[in-house]
Specification:
The complex is a heterodimer of chains A (520) and B (323). Chain A is mainly alpha-helical and 520 residues long. Chain A contains 24 helices and 4 strands. Classes of the chains: A mainly alpha (520), B alpha/beta (323).
Chain lengths: 520, 323
């Protein structure tokens, strides 16, 4: 059955939206008690155990993410106690010999009731995103077919189904906040956009890379004037206020840097290094904010003619040339600075060659993050000066900005944060539907390969459907090595991970080619 | 916009509730035991919300009367930062309190030196050190390690890190390697492999739920006189060795390598006085519903320890009853 004809049938029903959401919900409800990605669920179990033992999220190792998901787990912990689901998991000695290999196996297996409980907020989030996509598309297009397609592409997407109802990863919460932030910015509700954007980053840091796009949306909506500056300032103030509220418990407990370590590590900066800078880091940030504000004041209030004559009222070719030149200069300077920093870090590094390599790898990640941000800035610039009217430039920029985040191969769950952008793109440009479906199917398959036998550990330990000993040969296989030190699972990961990555690159390629054609 | 408002309201309410739980919630489970004199003990469990309760009936335990947690910013050594030691030991002290053990106190190197040089302080008392290096005022010269005196006098040492005595911490937070200074020498793994894990579980580790398999500093599993109470293969992730009139517990890794659940189990072992002579007589579990509940344990004898905990798999709340 083709997607269009399938949607046609649903559209003709009495409550097509409800049918779509209920169908998505039904699939998830069936999957959630049966299959689970054990290794991540055991991490969520640690949070329950930390809280119940009188510790907080960051007092001892166990929870590494920013606080939002930890808070949601806290609420679920309370619910678990109220409902009497107090058996969170158990040690499984049969698995002990396989712990610590390249393929991650935990010595614990979480209970079915625990798995279900943790997945409940994630599945509700899926429903919320499906509904948000439907209402947003309906509002901007006034086309019910498009709105239903948007809902279906999220609610019935194999990747979103798998991540919430099997993997129990919270990337969809971050995706939901990012989508709300995008919608709010589009609707010129900047206070809301800024605050929710902060929540998106504090859930999982990937939305950080949308910063230039959001700024560009404000400027495109309001024009090059003081109103834009005021709106941006308002959004930033809102984002900072929300961040302070969310981080308040960690700040009070002196754990701020621990609470953001996942974020800083992902861009190649160690939280302890940042912490060691102490007050100077905030002084530096303050100076930076002051300089940016002063520059904005100067160019918008005192000498607006400079921007007008040298940037706004010149030909597109000249402007592009100038922007590319600036980007190249910034890239060059940043590369030189980071290389110097890398050299300094490597000289200072102690330990084995592997430790030194790890330090160097962190600096490479920092460099890649800078390049990504520069690409994001370029996409935001192109969006800002796009001559196309209506919603399409917004959607294209949102989708392109999303893809750039994962130019280096993402884990399947990470890709969730960019799915809403692709759903919108596919809805408004049907040529993206097929690549989108292919990408999400391949990503889902990749995730199934990663889950491997651990997907049924809970069933084996907590039900009589199977026995853990019957899974041991499979566990032995996935944790074994071939040709010396090559994990047996590696070729499978290469094939499935590679295929899903290629499908993502293909989507980017289609976006660039079709976007260029569209702008011509 | 209405949908967004509803979604955000629900999200914020959920997060606020979760933050309150994460930073303020405390399960109110409490335990008490009554014996009928004929080998049965009735465990009463109080608390308004349901809880998973586990018990272990143990014989041959030796609960320390006092546990000293060593922490000194000057002599913290270079392996584990002072801050990490502080956080870890503070958490351990809090976990002990949750398990009904309130006799843990922090000591610095001066007090440690004083304890080690006073023979009467050692019996029935324990020192916990997670820095991996003995401070130089307790270890003034290569042959005079005060902790050995402590154990010889009947004290217990809970040790985590490289071979005890191999490193001395100076006043500059650095470690000085003492050639031939390690207590166990070649019997300690000293593996550079990360992570270095062992996979067989001992009876005690099964009964206490200890699943920590790190053994980069593990003692040989068959070290003479030792008892494995953790996991093992050739080396052990947790062993106890009689030393003089006292004993030393050798954890096969830095304390920070233990996962949350194993750390709770480690604390369980400390507060119920597990040692080389401990025998697990019985284990069991009980699910308490809303309100109070009780269950019976049979086969108890004078001198046994009945250790009751709530939480699964981590024993987040507990109490050791000396019968």
């Amino acid at each position: 059955m083709k997607l269009e004809s399938g949607l046609g049938r649903i559209r003709d029903m009495k409550h097509p939206l409800a049918v779509l959401i209920l169908a998505g919900l039904a699939v998830r409800l069936v999957l959630m008690p049966l299959f689970s990605f054990n290794i991540d669920l055991t991490y969520w179990m640690k949070v329950f155990n930390l809280i119940d033992g009188g510790n907080d999220l960051y007092s001892i190792g166990g929870y590494y993410y920013t606080p939002v998901w930890g808070y949601i787990l806290g609420a679920m912990d309370m619910l678990a106690h109220v409902l009497g689901f107090t058996d969170f998991g158990t040690q499984v000695p049969e698995l002990y010999p396989y712990v610590g290999m390249d393929y991650s196996i935990s010595p614990y297996v979480t209970s079915v009731s625990f798995n279900v409980l943790v997945k409940v907020p994630l599945i509700l989030t899926d429903v919320a995103v499906a509904y948000l996509l439907y209402t947003f598309v309906m509002r901007i297009s006034d086309d019910r077919n498009k709105a239903l397609l948007a809902c279906a592409l999220w609610a019935l997407c194999p990747l979103t189904i798998l991540e919430s109802s099997v993997h129990a990863m919270f990337d969809n919460v971050s995706a939901m906040f990012m989508l709300i932030s995008f919608i709010a910015a589009y609707d010129r509700k900047y206070l809301l956009a800024g605050g929710v954007y902060s929540l998106a980053i504090l859930t999982k840091f990937f939305p950080l890379f949308f910063i230039f796009l959001l700024l560009a949306i404000v400027v495109r909506n309001e024009g090059f004037n003081m109103r834009s500056i005021r709106s941006i300032a308002m959004a930033i103030a809102s984002a900072v206020a929300v961040m302070l509220i969310v981080e308040l418990p960690a700040i009070i407990n002196g754990q701020f840097w621990e609470s953001v370590s996942f974020m800083t590590e992902r861009i190649g900066l160690s939280a302890s290094t940042l912490e060691s800078l102490g007050i100077w880091l905030f002084v530096g940030l303050g100076i930076l904010v002051f300089l940016v504000a002063a520059a904005a004041h100067y160019f918008c209030r005192i000498r607006p003619d400079i921007i007008r004559s040298r940037f706004l009222e010149i030909s597109d070719e000249d402007r592009n040339r100038k922007v590319l030149k600036v980007i190249k200069v910034v890239a060059g300077v940043m590369t030189a600075l980071i290389l110097l920093y890398s050299a300094y870090s490597v000289i200072k590094a102690e330990g084995t060659l592997v430790d030194i390599f790890n330090v160097f790898a962190k600096r490479v990640v920092l460099l890649l993050s800078v390049y990504t941000l520069l690409l994001e800035a370029y996409i935001a610039y192109r969006f800002l000066f796009s001559r196309r009217e209506g919603i399409m430039p917004y959607i294209y920029a949102f989708a392109m900005s999303a893809t750039v985040i994962f130019l280096w191969p993402p884990a399947p769950q990470y890709a969730i944060v960019i799915v809403p952008a692709f759903v919108l793109l596919a809805v408004f440009d049907g040529r993206f539907v097929k690549p989108f479906v292919i990408m999400t199917v391949l990503m889902a398959l990749y995730d199934i390969v990663l889950a491997g036998p651990s997907a049924v550990f809970s069933l084996a330990v907590y039900t009589s459907l199977m026995d853990i000993s019957s899974l041991v040969p499979m566990v032995e296989f996935v944790t074994s090595y071939i040709f010396g030190e090559l994990p047996t699972i590696a070729p499978f990961m290469l094939v499935f991970g590679g295929a899903s990555y290629v499908s993502l690159l293909y989507l980017i390629y289609r976006g660039i080619i079709l976007g260029r054609r569209g702008s011509e | 916009m209405k949908a967004i408002a509803v979604i955000l309201a629900v999200s914020c309410a959920l997060m606020a509730a979760g933050a309150a739980v994460a930073y303020c919630y405390h399960p109110d489970t409490g335990f008490s035991v009554t014996e009928d004199g004929s080998g049965n003990a009735t465990v009463s469990v109080s608390g308004s919300l349901p809880a998973d309760v586990n018990y272990r009936l143990l014989s041959g335990t030796d609960i320390p009367e006092r546990i000293y947690l060593y922490l000194d910013s000057d002599y913290s050594g270079g392996m584990v930062s002072y801050r990490d030691q502080d956080r870890m030991l503070s958490s351990i002290r809090d976990m002990m309190r949750e398990c009904g053990y309130c006799n843990a106190e922090f000591i610095d190197s001066a007090r440690l030196a004083q304890l080690c040089s006073t023979p009467s302080e050692a019996p029935k008392r324990a020192i916990m050190m997670i820095s991996g290096a003995v401070p130089e005022n307790v270890y003034p010269d290569d042959s005079n390690n005060g902790l050995e005196t402590w154990m010889a006098n009947g004290g217990t040492l809970y040790w985590a890190g490289p071979d005890m005595g191999l490193y001395r911490a100076d006043a500059h937070r650095d470690n000085v390697k003492v050639e031939g200074g390690g207590r166990f020498g070649d019997n300690i793994n000293n593996s550079t492999e990360k992570p270095c894990l062992v996979g067989k579980s001992s009876d005690i580790s099964r009964a206490m739920g200890f699943a920590g398999g790190h053994a980069e500093f593990g003692l040989k599993a068959d070290y003479p006189g030792s008892a494995v109470i953790g996991l093992y293969d050739e080396y052990s992730s947790l062993s106890v060795v009689p030393a003089g009139a006292g004993r030393i517990f050798v954890l096969g890794c830095p304390m920070s390598s233990l996962d949350v659940e194993s750390l709770y189990s480690y604390v369980d072992m400390v507060v119920c006085g597990i040692n080389e002579d401990t025998v697990v007589k019985d284990t069991g579990s009980y699910h308490k519903g809303y309100g109070s509940g009780s269950f019976m344990v049979s086969g108890v004898s004078v001198g046994d320890v009945l250790y009751v905990t709530s939480g699964k798999p981590a024993s987040v709340n507990g109490r050791a009853f000396l019968l």
